[in-house]
Amino acid sequence: MIDLLNKAWILVVLCATVGFVISLYMTLGFYRVEPYFRWLGRIMPTSCRMGEGDCISVLDHPAAHILGLPNALYGAIYYLVVLLAIATHSTILLYACRWASVLTLIMSAFLVYMLTRRMKRRCILCFAGHFINVMLAVLLWNVPDFDAAY
Question: pLDDT, tens digit, for every residue of 8-20?
């Protein structure tokens, strides 16, 4: 078993969990079903509620979706795979997550550029998600492999 007291693994779980919650909320907002999940909206910052502020305009921007699916949905899947890799101690999934983290860094850089330079928006949840992507990339490439963690 992985030593869960290892601070790096705890940070990976924490980042992936928070990233998943943010991505889930943004995905629900993209599909306009967030009002049916009011409990989730209550834990978000007031300025990030879907009925208020710029959140909907950010989610409606062409850069907010790829192949018709919201970027947040891809993020939610990524965070779930990270958590699944840890829960199953799958070395293959860990390696996949490491390489996926490189793709998330590229995508995050592009999306931050789109938000700040093109759209001129400040999306707290978007920035939090991109920060989490940076943290996960650094952590995933520096945590020990599952075989070495025993």
Answer: 888 999 999 999 9
